[in-house]
Amino acid sequence: MPAMHFRVRWPDQTETRCYSPSLVIKDYFAPGTCYPLAEFMASVREALHIASERVRAKYGFACSAAMDQLADIEQHAARWATQPDAQIEVLAFDE
Q1: 50-71 residue pLDDT tens
Q2: Can you give the pTM of this predicted structure?
Q3: How far is CA 42 from CA 37, 58, 60, 77, 86, in A?
């Protein structure tokens, strides 16, 4: 199963390199695009859950690394939860 990383820029201009056990992230995001925080979070939750389930289908167990990554993203996103104009930029896919 091809894993990948994707890089995002948060509203404070910090960047995070994120992991996905599947290329499904490419179905949800486009490099160089900014997403409102709520939209980004809904999409990344769905994509990482799908990726984890693909691992389950292939290996018989969910991908804990995908769920750990989601928890980390959730923690980062919480900082801007009260800012209605917060945008997350997807910078690149690293395969």
Answers
A1: 999 999 999 999 999 999 999 9
A2: 0.93
A3: 9, 25, 26, 11, 14
